[in-house]
Amino acid sequence: MRQRGFTLLEMLVATLIMGVAVVGLLSNLSTSLSNAARLTDYDRAALLAKRKMDELLLDPHLPRMAVLEGKFDPAVAGGVEAGWKAHISPFESPPEASPGITILDRVELEVWWQSGASRKSFQIEAYRPFVIPQPVAGGGA
Question: In the chain, what are the domains?
Answer without folding.
Answer: 8-131 (3.30.1300.30)
